[in-house]
Amino acid sequence: MDAQHEDGSLFGDDLLPRPARVLAPGAVWVPGFLRLDQQAWIAARFEEWADGPVPPRSPTVRGHEMSVRTVCLGWHWRPYAYSREAVDVNGNRVLPFPDWMTRLGRSAIAAAAQHDPELAGTPGQPDPEHAASPYSPDTALVNHYSADAKMGMHQDKDERSLAPVVSLSIGDACTFRFGNTETRTKPYQDITLESGDLFVFGGPSRLAFHGVTRIQPGTAPRGCGIAEGRLNITLRETGLDG
Q1: pTM of the prediction?
Q2: What CATH number labels 30-179+192-204?
């Protein structure tokens, strides 16, 4: 046996399966949901969105500028409110929410619901015993994390709808902290979200606190379309009209 076999470099941890996990009722992690070519295609769309009518910007929360840079689709998010126009940037109307993202969101909900009955019958997962309308996200928050960017523990509660949030990762891996619905502190779980991973939280976990404690530079797979940093796409239903 040669040295490569002896040191395990040919048979490392990257060959181990990464099964889906239910972190809490309604919170499901599905590793490897997006294929590499799908990741690269979405990454290319990000470049187009960044050149659109509203440039990426770092929102300010409680007087502090966030370390991520955000582009919004469908509705423009600013802390505690949504609007069609980026009133805190340049006043331009944001790009529309694309139809393919609706299909992607529904397939993501269906994939997560296979692992957690809490999501069965919720919007996006057909269930003859429940009269749920199809999952219909109408906004996407697309965040780019540089190597030193973080996201503090927070709740996604600016939406009127409590339909699940769909989160997709492309690029460098991150340490993702998923907590409880009552407090920013423990109990929480830390997991490593890698490029192509899906995370869905809805039902009892829809208002759970969550955040990103660190980016792991140099972990993006070749061909994912992101040279450095992490791209995170979160799909949501705002519950707003117009």
Answers
A1: 0.90
A2: 2.60.120.590
